[in-house]
Design goal:
The protein is 25% helix and 35% strand. The protein is α+β, with helices and mostly antiparallel strands. The protein is globular and about 60 Å long.
Length: 211
Amino acid sequence: MELADIRREYTKGGLRRKDLKENPIDQFNLWLEQAIRANLSDPTAMTVATVDENGMPFQRIVLLKSVDENGFVFYTNLGSRKAQHLEHNSKISLHFPWHPLERQVHITGTAEKLTAMENLKYFTSRPKESQLAAIASRQSSRISARGVLEGKFLELKQKFANGDIPVPSFWGGFRVKPQSVEFWQGGEHRLHDRFLFSRTEGEWQIDRLAP
C-alpha cells in the first residue's frame, strides 16, 4: 500500500463551543482524566519542542508531572539539550497526541525553572532506582557504550544502599506558563473541530479555527 493511501475516518464525535469550559486548564484536565479512564498508553506523555541557538527545532517525548493554573510541569537533567535550549530561548511548545480518542492538545508558552524546594519535593517522591538513574545519566552527553551507564548506576546503587540520595545539582524541573492552548477533535470527512485559547491581558480568548 502506498503511504498516500493510508487514511481513516474520525468518528468519535465532534467538539462544540458550548461543550468547552471557559478556562483551558479545566478543559485540559477534563480531557486528561478521560484519557486516563480510557486506559490509553502513557496518557501523560507529551512532545516537547525547543529551539537551539541556530534556530533549529528539536522534539522529544517527556512525561507531564503536574498541571495547575500556574502551568505544566516536567523534570529533566539541567545539562540536557532541551534545558540548554531553554537557557537561551525560554519559548516552548507541548503536544499531547491522544490518538485513540482522536484528540490532540497543543500548547505554546514560556518555560521557567522550578524552585529548589519544588525539585526536592518531587525528587524524594520518586522510586530509588529513578533517583539513581537521574544521577548516573548526564543526559544528552556522549558515552562510549551502554555498559558505562550501567556501571555508574550499579556504583551509585551500592554507594547509597543504606542512605538517602541527595538531589543532584544538575537535575530539576520546568514550569511551562501557557500563552495558547489548542484543542483538536477529529471529525468526519476531515471536518475536524479546533478551538484555540489565547491569553490576552490576563484573559482567555476562545476562537474556532478552520481544520
